[in-house]
Design goal:
single chain, alpha/beta, 7-stranded mixed β-sheet, 26 strands, 18% strand
Amino acid sequence: MFNVVIFSGGTGSIAIQEGFSAIYGNDNYNLDVIINAYDNGKSTGTCRKIFNDRILGPSDLRKNHMTQFKVQKAAQLKDFSSRESVLYKLFNLRLDAESKEDYYEQACELLEESRVAIGDKDTYNLKSLLDYFFFENVHNNVWRRTLEGVDFKDFSIANIFYSASAAMNGYSLRLAGKDMAGILGIKDNVHLISDVNLYLEARTESGHVIEDEGIIVEWDNPNDKITSVMLLRDGQEYIPSVDEETDLTKVRSCKSIIEEADLIIFSSGTQWSSLIPSYMHSGLRKMLATSKAKKYVVMNNIEDHDMRGVTADDIVDILGLNIPVEDITAVVNLDAVPGMNEVKKIRSISGHISGEKAKHNPVKLIALVMKDFFDIADFKGIYVYDLDGTLWDERANNRGKAVGSENMNLFSGIIHSGNTYEHVRDAFKYLYHQDTVVEIYSDFGNVHFTSDDYKFDLLSQEYLVDKSIITALEKVPEFKGKTKMRTSGCVVTIKPLVNREVLLRKAEKVLEEYGDKYEARISGHTSIDIMVKTFDKKKMLLMIMESQGLKVEDVIFVGNETEEGAEANIKETGVRTLQVDDVYECNVLLKTINQ
């Protein structure tokens, strides 16, 4: 399955997350968001103080959970009375109160009003978090002493839930995130890069130190630009490492998420306060440098308040202090303000990807990135697809079969399959519902037919197998009753077999009687195939291309064995290959092609 990782602040990656959901849905790829939680403004900072500065700031975790909630629960949110709509409204509420007593009373009333929609269990869970936030001992009505003097104006109720959950989880905001994702009913896919409780400060060109994260966000001073940020632990500068103080027995590590990524996107947003603190973590540069993933950084459309007077190329220099920008592609909006609408210092891609109010258009942004990821932005030729394990997988579970069925009605191109004529024919009979007639080549490519005419012909007679081989193989006890010539006459298949490596040598011994013409190959999941030595998908692809009048540059071959397996030597033809590991990844490719 295709693995996407987004480095995000609070709201900067909304367009990225929404774009993936809009194009690909939410289930046929893995999306993980990595954040830090050093926010210290408004109710977030107050929550940290109430718990004696022992928890991280919950706001960016909450904001990303709300983005994921919105995209994962889009259908349910259309019903304003649904559980999801009530939860979404509740978690986005900011209440005004004159006192802690007044705020607590309002919050309790809200939970009671929401009980029917939310359900007793989760109402009880949220009420427990509310009680823990406000009381040292709720049964004896002992309020938290740290609440004295707190201003409850414009105070996020969800921040109360998250911060109380963190305190109850041993002051771990990461574990709180897991619990809150459970209450919300969403994937636990927003991860703190570390769970160390730190505070953020910044230093400007003049040497001035900005001690409040909220002021960093709104610095807005091109005459005294921010030049660096520092993370503080107990008042001392501290550089955390990736996954530090994270309980990896209960949650996935950011290290493993990065290692498994196919695509990493560094979000636009407020760099100094929201994003760079993540990039500062020890060990991250090496993880990114060794990652196999393609990497992109999305540039802002306008200068942000913390980087007034800083161009896109200046941002590249700043980011390069912590992450390997030489291996990263910048994503630039051609309609951004001057200075932000081009990047010269690293590779870049660009397009007209504006949305509303100086924001990115989610679909245009992700389409631009993904077409570049697959390197198909300018391709106007023909896609040639393997069938099994690529477009369709008969061994998949019901969900995988549903995705495969969708793939069969998304793709456009030619089929080049190693499977039998009967199998490929039946897949098209029962799964293919498009009007376009497809040219189909089965049995490693030698059997040709179409999706509207199942009569077949052979591209070449030279690959027919001597029928006497079946009689010879049947003399081997392990092969008796398991040997069959395919309808095409090009392949003899022995199945089902176990211990195929040992049995392969027995098949090869039989073939010695026929000189050097044939070979035995392990194939599929339980088979050994016998065929002419020079007969393979590479050789037949060249014949297919000749019969279709296609040049090397006209073709991209898509398969699940282009790196290892029966399709690996196709690259030797000069034809471009695209590896998709399963039907889910193929689904992502097809939806990218169709953008």
